């Protein structure tokens, strides 16, 4: 697109060339080819991709249809000597004021617009222009609409800024329409903003309120072990991983310009193998001060929530034998105990806490006793004795001990120096190798992780202790080969998240095995009858949940958990927790269904329909959906400054189609290429990038660095490559084309049309105190919302090779229509 200065120069060139046609009565066809084509393309920056010529309607053929996402308009060309009758001194006026004198041309464009389902148009004879909105969608008087007038070529030249700001491609893309109209129609309305008490939480019935604490108690047995730190618990619940490392090509790519030699990464392919390698590495260096180098630091890397902490606990509490641990006392430091205020002095805090841990967990070593302190500082004490203390030691023991105590107290004030001396003492006199474990530094930003890494390297060399540190793989690999980090030699082991279903199944089994609660729970149900159950019967409900999740048939609930949270096992457990404790989880109904199935020998085990599960996860204890706080993302909610409701899902379709064409090996696409492709469709580049960043925030796409698991706190760099993620693919294929999803997001999606908003809002059923809403009306609302999306899709997209213009049709064909048909039988 041209700048305004370039456009003005081109217009002045065009104006000079126009003299050749001054005395010729050009036909409508000539007006198009010789004048309007020049103005639209060479001056105003439109391309052939933006223009459709001579489109057919029942009323005839319009001359141009010009399209960008969310805005289209028709240009009707007239003969050059067919002058319009316009008020000479007016730059703008109402359409009604010029209608009578220009009735034929105004009626003609209105017919074309009506047939095409549009509202905006331009009438021009090559030198005069009438620009306006010739149809309204809200039954208001269209003749009162404002139109912009240009009386001749000289008028355009004199008011070129107005002309350019109104009709150039850049301006229309920026304003999503004619700037001068400042239309209200782009202002959206949202159903949820009009709902009463929309932030009020559900009121549970008395039985649900009474049974929830029991469910919570059982689930706490599942969830509180997001970190396994008890030996029995680890033995019961730890899931060994058969694929502990990434494949060769991925590892080489992660290390950028200098592919890492595979000898620098653990070659272990399973948990047992990696445990053996770590044990061998620590044991490979004899425990003696004569050894120049201590064991190399061990770096445990893995994605967020993949189980790095659990793996470390597995090493030290289950895998390593007693003899190994007896020779290697260890200190475990959890970074989560530190606050932001602590980070400025984090190194000194680590050392101080390490010393205190040694005192607390290894009291038999008596490291704080005078006897041991004298051995720790044996060399220094001998020097003092040679320098004068010896006299006091022989002739004035009390004075000697006074000096000694004062000296030892002074030595212990320097925590780092004292820690080093402790480690040397343990090696020299006890043949013990101190092992320092620094965990969960990845809960902080990259700078903190860098500090932790450099500290681990430093204390490893100074104190000759073994060091194990866990880091987020994305951060570690991004700076591993840059100074000063490339100066250090470490052994790196990659921990891959185990299969989610294995983790959840073991946790549920362990919780149920250890749960036993006497007594009964009773309360009133919504149907006004009283229910009484033994508390232990809740275990039956959990067993049924287990069967629903892990039965023979592939569980939709389990698929949701896996594909929207993996490899973050911690997040998956949180989502499962939200479902169990949500006010929309009808526990009493599930218990009664389970009892009925048991009595009837039913083998369906479909106690929890997927739509109830999705609703419970999305709403938790709220009556209505809010995309800002829900774990379910709304892909039809445009970013600020945009009304393009299909751009997010178009980007997802675009990325998915690339994988379908070239496969997973080449799935990453440069962001700059995506921006260029969608810019060709007249989407604003800034909006494209904003939508990509939001998709990344939702984890619906991933960058190559997402394999490295960096947090998406910052905007994408220009040189990033992206692909649709597993979660994004699940949304496109399985979640979006469902009634459950549409039933949620219709509550929170901006509606850019007054008529559709009124129809949807009029039918929208309010929730009662328990969150129940009329199923018949919910179905009706979703159907009307689908019609609205069809209407918006026609406005926003058009036939091209880059994006699909059949999103809504695909959603209906891929499951939504089937869901609606099933509901038809339930609501009849």
From TrEMBL:
Which top-rank group of organisms is this from? Bacteria
Q: What is this protein called?
A: AAA+ ATPase domain-containing protein
